[in-house]
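User: Can you predict the 3D structure for this chain?
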Amino acid sequence: MLQEQGMASTGVPALDQALGGLFWGDNVVWESRQEASVEPFFRSVASLAAGYQEALYVALTRAPEDVAVAYPDLAVIDARPGSPLAKPAPLLRAVVERCSPDRRTLLLFDPLDAMVERWGLEMARLFFTRTCPILLELGGIAYWSLTGDCREILSRDVEATTQCVIAVEDGRLRIVKAEGRRPGTEGTVFRYRLEEGRPIVEP
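Assistant: Here is the predicted structure, written as structure tokens:
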């Protein structure tokens, strides 16, 4: 088991094999034209929530009841407009309070695009570039996504800040960045298809 080796799983065996699993503290950014393309990979890691002491979904726009349907095993951090956590600083404090180096924590975030729409580009960039190093230090595993026009705008910050970047497009998956992995991991391309909503990834 990966956790016995000090690593976590993506829930996708071929991706685990390529990456050597997820290291504690990894921030993984999924890039695609459409949010729907990355959703199966979020569901795959969320299906392993029982292996974490904390498994959380950070919702900036998504209603908690919708999160409960998509990710029934994840608790919701509600950062929607009008909530006490609607602004970046309180949300960051709430995330840090739920994470601890001695507790295995999984966090799934609403798309970075939603942060840009809510807070503006510079504040969204600042939140992301501050949160990732903190989660790395605390050992939390975080899934982020970047879709639409924001990919080009934020791609440089994403690749500089995060540990893993994975691009998903038209039935293909490419590992863009894989910090600390063996040589040759970055640039690896896979085919994938969905079976009953779960991604099947093949070389």
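The chain has seven helices and eleven strands. The helical segments are 13-19, 35-46, 64-70, 88-98, 112-119, 121-138, 150-161.
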